[in-house]
Amino acid sequence: MNFPNLPAAMCAAAILASSPAWAGPGHDHGDAAPAAVGQTLPRFSAVSETFELVGVLSGKQITLYLDRFADNSPVRGAQIELEIGGAKFKAEKHGDDEYEVVLPDAPKAGVLPVTATVTAGNEADLLAGELDIHEAAHADEAAHTHSWTEYAGWVAGGIAALGLLVWGGRRVIHARNARAGAAA
Fold first, then answer.
1. Is the predicted pLDDT of residue 137 greater than 50, yes or no?
2. What percent of the chain stands above pLDDT 70?
3. Which of 65, 96, 114, 128 is deepest in the core (most CB within 10 A)?
4. For the chain, which residues make up each domain, given as ranges?
């Protein structure tokens, strides 16, 4: 038996058998959500049975959001006094649902204790949290990307696998021809 087209048939079978891998959601690297640009601003949260306070630091300004813990509804008209690292500040109303504190200087990197005294109507509460300020060490990290060298590695591996298939197919043909010639 002579199979002159066996290497071509093996290559075609290998190509047809190696269908592309179908990745599940979140693993296909296609149509990725746009990466967030810029840094995340430092923030703190302080919670009690009555209130939930979130503060976002941007330079010297702290924007405060005060909600009721039970239903997450905004608390309007409250008096908020912050103590940050031993210094006291009174928050001013800013917009409908925000309060604002402007610090004399931007805080240095590190963890600062934050205590808030909140008075809303006849309710008063003391809340505590920490403001963790990190240096911008990881601000320049790029989104996950593939370089051409990674793709080149996969292509080289595929070519090597096809070469082994062709080489193995020729060895089989030569071995069969040798046996067929010896039997005749």
1. no
2. 62
3. 114
4. 43-133, 147-184
Name the CATH topology of 43-133.
Immunoglobulin-like (2.60.40)
Phi-psi map region of 94: left, alpha, beta (phi>0 left; psi -120 to 50 alpha): beta
CA distance 75 to 84: 22
Question: Which residue has tokens 């006291």?
Answer: 88
> Which residue's entry shows tokens 């020729």?
170
Residue in this structure with the two tokens 């959601």, named with its chain if needed = 25
142-147 LR contacts (CB < 8 Å, sep 24+): 143/32, 143/35, 144/29, 146/29
Q: How far is CA 87 from CA 28, 31, 104, 112, 137, in A?
A: 50, 48, 10, 11, 28
Planar angle of CA 42, 93, 111, nearest 5 degrees: 25
Residue-level pLDDT at 123: 93
Write the CB contacts of 101 (distance below 8 Å, at least 6 apart in sequence). 55, 61, 62, 64, 82, 89, 90, 91, 92
Question: Token pair 């990881």 is at which residue?
Answer: 138
